[in-house]
Design goal:
The protein contains 5 helices and no strands. By secondary structure, it is mainly α. The chain has one domain.
């Protein structure tokens, strides 16, 4: 997945892409989701690691981009 418009937006607003995937952001990402979704994400995180959270986040960006 590529998001050139979103990357450009982040750069224009002086936001670091690496900061988007910081542990603090990941914690807030899970905290802001409904409990049942957060529970499932946590289970997947335990099984597959942080890549699951990044994939979910990228899918959400893709859906919101449209």
């Amino acid at each position: 997945m590529e998001f050139p418009r979103i990357l450009k937006h982040l750069q224009n607003n002086y936001l670091e892409v690496s900061g988007t995937f910081s542990p603090l952001f990941m914690t807030l990402f899970v905290y802001m989701t409904p409990f049942d979704v957060a529970t499932k994400l946590f289970e997947l995180f335990i099984i597959d690691g942080e890549l699951v959270l990044i994939r979910v986040l990228l899918k959400m960006i893709e859906l919101k981009q449209k």
